[in-house]
């Protein structure tokens, strides 16, 4: 859980994307752009990283990515439905081949019994129709939760999509 891990994952991700001539976009909430930062820390990433969206508020998720108010009200921002809509929306508006979305509770406030601090949902979508969502729990403080979430997102992209 260091910057070195993010760097290594970002290099691998970039090599895989370049190898197939594909592009990636991301829609981030609790990670606040950390995934996009890790990817763009790599020289030449503009050839495969299309753009990133930091949609921290519910309104930003709706306006920028098309997440429905209904999903936000029924399930909350930290939910499978919302990360799926975030990933699909980012894929569409960025005209990318792959998308990753993340929404979670990094803490120290905001947790509940149903969704404790450290709960993070991830959505993944590909232009070919593949989609995947998964919930994870990461222990630790705010910075650790965000770091682990960014690492997890990159790992899943590499292992399940590329």
List key phrases describing it.
162 residues, 5-stranded mixed β-sheet, Maf protein, CinA C-terminal domain-containing protein, alpha/beta, 6 helices
Q: What proportion of the residues form beta strands (DSSP E)? A: 15-25%
Sheet of most strands = 5 strands, mixed
Write down how many β-strands occur, each being a DSSP E stretch of 2 or more residues: 5
What would CATH call the class?
A: Alpha Beta
Secondary structural class: alpha/beta
| Count of discrete structural domains | 1
Low-confidence stretches: none
- Identify the CATH homologous superfamily: CinA-like
Q: Tell me the strand order in the biggest sheet.
A: 2-1-3-4-5
Summarize the amount of helix as a percent range: 40-55%
From the coordinates shown, what is the CATH architecture?
Alpha-Beta Complex
